[in-house]
Amino acid sequence: MRPRLLLLEPDAAFRLALIAALREAFDVSVPNRDDDLLRLARALRPDVALFAAGDRQRGEAMRLSRVLKTDVRSVPALGLYTHRGERGPSAAAVKDVAADGFLPSVVEPGALLPFAVALARGEVVLPNPWPDTAPLGLRRVLTRLLGRLGSSG
Fold first, then answer.
1. What CA–CA distance (Å, rounded) separates 98 from 8?
2. pTM exceeding 0.85
3. What pLDDT, in 10s, does the model give residues 27-61?
4. Which domain holds residue 43?
């Protein structure tokens, strides 16, 4: 029997690409807008859940993750991911909601397949070091400034 995967991805085009990439190894379920996600998760009993947790979705993804992992315990493996250019949750926030993995900066839908497979095997997939959450422009300025300071000594 193939593992069941619950997918929460708000972007329709990316969601279709993810489904195509993930259905190679999983039976993928995607909730409708009107679905009660907690009820759906209890009914489906997915083996893995993947939630987009970037800028716009972070609050909802974190709330649902906490409920599914700590209150309902209906999802054994839950991973959060962001799209390229989005700010993700902090390491403390991911730990707080008991997520089993976080994949920053997903560009290619196929990158989520090995991530989901690892989660389904019971692996904890967290980046080390945690991604820098400073905005890209600020990171460039700091990098230039620190580079200059470092070369002047």
1. 17
2. no
3. 999 998 888 888 888 888 899 999 999 888 888 88
4. 4-151
CA atoms within 13 A on the CB side of 69: 22
Distances (CA, A) of 53 to 4, 68, 132, 141: 20, 15, 15, 26
| Number of separate domains in the chain | 1
Here the tokens at position 148 are: 């200059």
Q: Are 38 and 30 in contact (CB under 8 A)?
A: no
Q: Quickly tell me which residue has 């926030």 as its tokens.
A: 93
Q: In terms of Cα–Cα distance, which of 124, 132, 129, 137 is closest to 98?
A: 124
Contact 56, 64 (CB under 8 A): no
Q: Tell me phi and psi for residue 29, to 5 degrees.
A: -115, 135
Q: With CA atoms as reference, report the closest residue to 26 among 122, 120, 124.
A: 120
CATH number at residue 114: 3.40.50.2300
CB 77 within 8 A of CB 120: yes
Query: 76-131, pLDDT tens digit by residue?
Result: 899 999 998 888 898 999 999 999 999 998 999 999 999 999 999 999 999 988 88
DSSP class of residue 26 equals: S
